[in-house]
Amino acid sequence: MKTIGLYGRKYLEIEEREMEVRSPGHEEVIVRVLACGICGTDLNFVRQWTGPAMALGHELAGEVVEVGPGVRTVSVGDQVIVEDCTLCGTCAACKGGRPDLCRTMFGLEGQSGMGQYLCLRHNSLIKYEGLEATHACLTEPLAVCLNAVLAARIPFQGSVAVLGSGPLGLMTARVAKLQGAGFVALTGVNTRTPLGRARLARAERLGLDRVIDAGESGWENAIRDVCPGGVDRVIVSSPPESINDALKIVGYGGTITFFGLHFGGRNTINVDINDLIFRKVTLQPFFAEPAINFHGALDLLKKGLVPAAEIVSHVRGVKEARRTLAGIVEGAEPVIKAVLLPQDH
Ligand SMILES: [Zn+2]
Ligand SMILES: [Zn+2]
User: Fold this and answer.
1) Quick one: pLDDT band at residue 345, thresholds 50, 70, 90?
2) How far lies 198's CA from each of 30, 189, 217, in Å?
C-alpha cells in the first residue's frame, strides 16, 4: 500500500513524499488518517529547523483499515486516537509506577500524520466514538494541558495564571478552572496580527476570570488587583523567557510549572536564586513524553468540558498545508487551531 505524507524544514519548505506503508506485522495496525492537527512542533520545523526535512503531523484521529496477527484491542472500522509517543510498559520505570519516566517509548517512526496511512502498534491506539475526527484530534494537545495542570497541584479554589494564548494556553486555563481553581487569568501578547488578536478574543469565551494583554505595560496589575500577594500557581505555555513574567506574579510559596519550548534563542533566563529561596518559589519543568492521560483528555472533549469547537478554528484539506502553516507562522490568519483533512477528502 502506498501513502503520501508531508515533510518540512526551514523556511516553509514542504515536500510531499510518496512512500510504501509496510504490511502490518505482529500486533501492528494500519490506520487511515481522518484528521490531523497542526502543532507548535510542526511550526518549529518549518520556521527554524535547518536539518533534513522532518515528518509533519502527530495529532491524529483515524480509522483502522487493517490489523496484523495478535491484535485484539481494535478491529477494522474502529475510530481511534493515535498516541504519538507510547510508553513501553515493560521497563523499570513503567513497572515501578512511574511510566512518565519511561525512556523506551514507541513513536510514529518518521511517518507523517499529514498524510493518508500509517502503520502503528496496537497499544498506541485509543478507540473513540461520538466525536468529530476534527475535534477528536485535539486529544493529544489537550492531554499535554491536562498533565501540566495535574503536575501543578493547584490548591482548591487557588489562584492560577496561565501564560500564553496559543491552543495549549487556552486549554490549560480551561482545565485549571475544571480542576478547582477559584481564579484563573490568561495572559498573551497581542502581537497586533490577526492571529494574536483572535487568540486573546477567543480566551474571553472560555469562562476565565481575566484575559490580559501582556504586551501592555503594567499588565501585572490586572492580576495584583485580585491577588495582591501574587498567584498560587503560574503555568507557562509560552517560550521559556516568559518565566521572567511568571516570577513577577507568583506568590509566596508558589510554583511555576513550565512546558513551553523555543528553539530560536528565547529559551534562556537569568534567575536570582536568592529570590526563589526567600520567596519559597518552586520552578517545575514539565515534559509531556510519553503519552499519559489521553483517556482523560478524550473524556473532557466528549463531555464538552473543553469546547473543541472554540479551539478548532480552521479545517482545511492537506493540499492547503503550506498556505495554512504560513498563515500561522506569519500571524496573518486568525487561526486558533488548524486541523487538516487527508488527501482523499
Ligand atoms: Zn503536538
Ligand atoms: Zn517503559
Assistant:
1) very low
2) 37, 11, 21
Mean pLDDT on 26-39: 97
Q: How confident is the model at residue 34 (pLDDT cuts 50, 70, 90)?
A: very high
**Distance of alpha carbon 169 from alpha carbon 196, whole angstroms:** 13
pLDDT tens string 195-214: 999 999 999 999 999 999 99
Grid coordinates of 301: 472533549
Residue 284: CB atoms within 10 A of its CB come to 16
What DSSP designation does 179 have?
T
What pLDDT shows up at residue 177?
Answer: 97
pLDDT for 344:
63
The single residue listed with the C-alpha cell 498516541 is: 83
Whether residue 11 is preceded by a cis peptide bond, meaning omega within 30 degrees of 0, is yes
For residue 148, the CA-to-ligand 1 centroid distance in Å is: 14
DSSP 3-state of 43: helix
* Cα 90 to averaged position of ligand 2 atoms, centre (Å): 5
Q: What's the gap in Å between 100 CA and the centre of ligand 2?
A: 8
Residues within 5 Å of ion ligand 1, judged at the Cβ atom? 39
Q: Which domains does the chain have, with CATH numbers?
A: 2-138+306-341 (3.90.180.10), 142-285 (3.40.50.720)
Ligand number with the minimum distance to the CA of 58: 1
Q: What spacing in Å lies between the alpha carbon of 97 and ligand 1's midpoint? A: 25
